[in-house]
C-alpha cells in the first residue's frame, strides 16, 4: 500500500509538472499554423548538415518550453516542411538552451561556472550529433507515417511528386509546379485541431508518467547514488537515474543539486544532459514523431555520446 501511495504521488508530480509545458508547446504550434498556414518560412530554414541543427537549436532561446512542450513544436516544424536536421536540432537542444532552463541551472549552481558552460555546450553537441545520425535514415524509416504524410502534403511539387503524396493523382516527380496557397484556418478549426493534438499528446504523457512513477518506486534512487564516486559507474548510474526520474528540464538542476556532492562531475553533467533528450515520459511522446526504430536509435546514440562526455569530464576534473 505504501508503494502504491508513493507511485501515485510521483505520478501526480510528474504529470502536473509536464502538462503546462505541453500546453505551451501545443499553443506555440497552433499559433505557428495560424500565422503561416502554408509553412513557406519553414522551408526557408537552412538544410545544411551543421547549420541546420544549429539554427534549430537557436530557436530554443526564444521558447520557454521544456522537452514535453518542444515535441508539438518540433512536429509542427516537420509537418510544415522544415528541413529534418533543423527540426531535430530544435527538438534535442531547445530543452536545455531555453531561457528558463539556463536560468535555473545558474540559480542551482552559481559556484560551478564550468557546469554553466558545459551543460548548454554538451546539449548543443548532442543535438548536432543526433541530428546527423538520424538524417542517415530515409524519411520513410524515420518519421511516423501520419507525420510523414502531413509533411509530404506541405512540400512543393518541385521537391515531392504527386504520386508520393498518396493523393491518387499522377504527376512527374520534380515537376516545376508551385504549391497551392493554403488559407489561414478559422479560429474554431484551429482550436479543434490544437485540442485534439493536446489530448493525443496528453494521453501519451500520462502513460509515460505512469511508467516512470512505477519504475521509480521499484528502483529507489539511493541504489543508483551509492556508486556516485566511481568514475565510470557513476556516469552510467546517473544516466539511468535521469531516464527513470523523468523530471522536467526546467527543474532538474535543483533536483541534481541535492546529490551533486555525492557524484562525480561527469555523472552530474550526464544527468543534466541526457534527461532532457531521453527519459521514460518523453519516449512515449516521441511516438508522434518517429518510428520505433528511430526512437531506439535516438536512445542508443544519446546514451553513447553522453557516456563519452561524462567520462571525458571526469578525466579533466578528477
TrEMBL record:
Chief localization: membrane
Transmembrane intervals: 7-35, 47-65, 77-97, 117-137, 198-219, 225-247, 254-274, 294-317
A Pfam family per the record: ArsP_1
Keywords from the named record: Cell membrane, Membrane, Transmembrane, Transmembrane helix
Assigned GO CC terms: plasma membrane
Similarity remark: Belongs to the UPF0718 family.
Protein name: Permease
Organism name: Cyanobium usitatum str. Tous
Lineage: Bacteria, Bacillati, Cyanobacteriota, Cyanophyceae, Synechococcales
Amino acid at each position: 500500500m505504501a508503494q502504491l501511495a508513493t507511485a501515485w504521488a510521483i505520478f501526480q508530480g510528474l504529470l502536473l509538472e509536464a502538462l503546462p509545458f505541453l500546453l505551451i508547446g501545443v499553443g506555440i504550434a497552433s499559433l505557428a499554423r495560424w500565422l503561416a498556414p502554408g509553412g513557406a518560412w519553414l522551408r526557408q530554414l537552412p538544410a545544411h548538415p551543421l547549420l541546420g541543427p544549429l539554427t534549430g537549436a537557436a530557436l530554443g532561446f526564444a521558447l520557454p518550453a521544456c522537452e514535453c512542450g518542444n515535441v508539438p513544436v518540433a512536429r509542427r516544424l516537420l509537418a510544415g516542411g522544415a528541413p529534418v536536421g533543423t527540426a531535430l536540432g530544435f527538438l534535442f537542444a531547445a530543452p536545455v538552451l531555453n531561457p528558463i532552463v539556463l536560468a535555473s541551472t545558474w540559480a542551482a549552481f552559481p559556484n560551478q561556472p564550468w557546469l554553466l558552460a558545459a551543460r548548454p555546450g554538451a546539449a548543443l553537441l548532442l543535438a548536432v550529433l543526433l541530428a546527423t545520425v538520424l538524417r542517415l535514415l530515409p524519411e520513410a524509416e524515420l518519421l511516423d507515417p501520419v507525420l510523414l504524410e502531413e509533411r509530404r502534403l506541405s512540400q512543393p511539387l518541385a521537391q515531392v511528386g504527386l504520386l508520393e503524396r498518396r493523393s491518387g493523382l499522377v504527376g512527374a516527380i520534380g515537376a516545376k509546379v508551385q504549391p497551392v496557397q493554403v488559407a489561414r484556418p478559422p479560429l474554431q478549426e484551429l482550436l479543434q485541431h490544437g485540442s485534439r493534438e493536446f489530448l493525443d499528446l496528453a494521453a501519451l504523457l500520462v502513460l509515460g508518467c505512469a511508467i516512470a512513477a512505477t519504475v521509480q518506486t521499484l528502483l529507489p534512487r539511493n541504489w543508483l547514488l551509492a556508486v556516485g564516486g566511481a568514475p565510470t559507474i557513476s556516469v552510467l548510474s546517473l544516466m539511468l537515474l535521469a531516464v527513470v526520474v523523468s523530471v522536467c528540464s526546467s527543474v532538474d538542476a535543483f533536483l541534481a543539486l541535492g546529490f551533486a556532492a555525492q557524484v562525480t562531475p561527469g555523472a552530474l553533467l550526464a544527468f543534466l544532459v541526457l534527461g532532457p533528450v531521453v527519459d521514460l515520459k518523453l519516449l512515449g511522446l516521441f511516438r508522434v514523431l518517429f518510428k520505433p526504430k528511430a526512437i531506439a536509435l535516438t536512445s542508443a546514440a544519446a546514451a553513447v555520446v553522453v557516456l563519452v562526455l561524462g567520462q571525458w569530464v571526469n578525466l579533466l576534473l578528477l
